Amino acid sequence: MADVKRIFEENTWAARARRTVTSVLPVDKGRKGRCRRCGACCKLPVECTFLAVDEDGLCSCKIWRLRPLNCRKYPRSCDEHLTREICGYYFEKTAKTAK
Questions:
Q1: What is the pTM of this model?
Q2: Can you tell me the distance from the alpha carbon of 24 to that of 36, in angstroms, rounded to the nearest whole number?
Q3: Phi, psi for 48 (deg, rounded to 5)
Q4: Does residue 34 lie within any of the structural domains?
């Protein structure tokens, strides 16, 4: 429950606006891993209309090929990674992220 509270506290309108504006930037080279289909990023802060959940509880996007940049690149950087406890993506330190 503390993780959910932290996500909501960190997901301010300013943070959402920043993710939208910076979504045109490249993904940090230190990002590793892959999507685990948990759907956590699709629920920031409310569940996305296009989120589909199958009978096994795995999530997918109904508009995968047309999804916005925010969705395509999340998490774009370590600073923007609000779902790090559940997400399959993680960030390794690189020259850029070590600064």
A1: 0.77
A2: 23
A3: -65, 140
A4: yes
